[in-house]
């Protein structure tokens, strides 16, 4: 009976040690689970902040693109007016040349109109280049947002 009692005590001690070991493992796993939850929450917040930043950049680029489009339209309109003015000046120049009266004044008017037209044309080209650059930037941001959506979908599927 004493021998059987000693065996049972030994088994009880082993089971207590096993129980304590498993309790330690359980505590460690619970701690790790909590750390993972905190890490996931931080990653989600970081991702949300990045999405908000991208959205702000997209809004800013959209405003710039609209402004560039408006500027380009205004410059095109001004360009058309200046071209009409140039044609009128050229017609006036031809009429003055035919009559030989005021030829120098007409040439000067035509030259001034031509210089103004060239300046506007150069400015229009720069604005159009800026508009195209803004459109490329918007496309890049749109592609980035698509990528973020894909990452979010993969993350949700993985959980």
Automatic annotation (TrEMBL):
Entry protein name: Endosome-associated-trafficking regulator 1
InterPro entries from the UniProt entry: ENTR1
Cellular component GO terms, alphabetical: centrosome; ciliary basal body; early endosome; midbody; recycling endosome
Signal peptide start-end: none
Annotated coiled-coil segments of the chain: 12-94
Membership in a protein family: Belongs to the ENTR1 family.
Single biological process term from Gene Ontology: regulation of cytokinesis
Domain of life: Eukaryota
Keyword Cytoplasm in annotation: no
Species for this entry: Edolisoma coerulescens
């Amino acid at each position: 009976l004493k021998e059987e009692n000693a065996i049972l005590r030994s088994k009880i001690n082993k089971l207590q040690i096993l129980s304590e070991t498993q309790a330690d493992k359980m505590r460690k796993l619970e701690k790790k689970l909590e750390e993972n939850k905190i890490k996931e929450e931080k990653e989600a917040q970081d991702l949300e902040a990045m999405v908000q930043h991208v959205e702000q950049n997209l809004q800013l680029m959209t405003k710039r693109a609209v402004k560039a489009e408006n500027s380009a339209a205004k410059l095109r309109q001004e360009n058309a007016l200046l071209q009409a003015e140039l044609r009128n000046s050229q017609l006036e120049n031809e009429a003055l040349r035919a009559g030989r009266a005021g030829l120098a004044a007409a040439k000067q008017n035509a030259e001034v109109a031509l210089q103004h037209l060239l300046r506007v044309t150069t400015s229009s080209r720069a604005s159009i280049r800026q508009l195209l650059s803004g459109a490329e930037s918007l496309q890049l941001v749109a592609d980035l947002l698509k990528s973020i959506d894909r990452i979010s979908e993969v993350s949700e599927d993985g959980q």
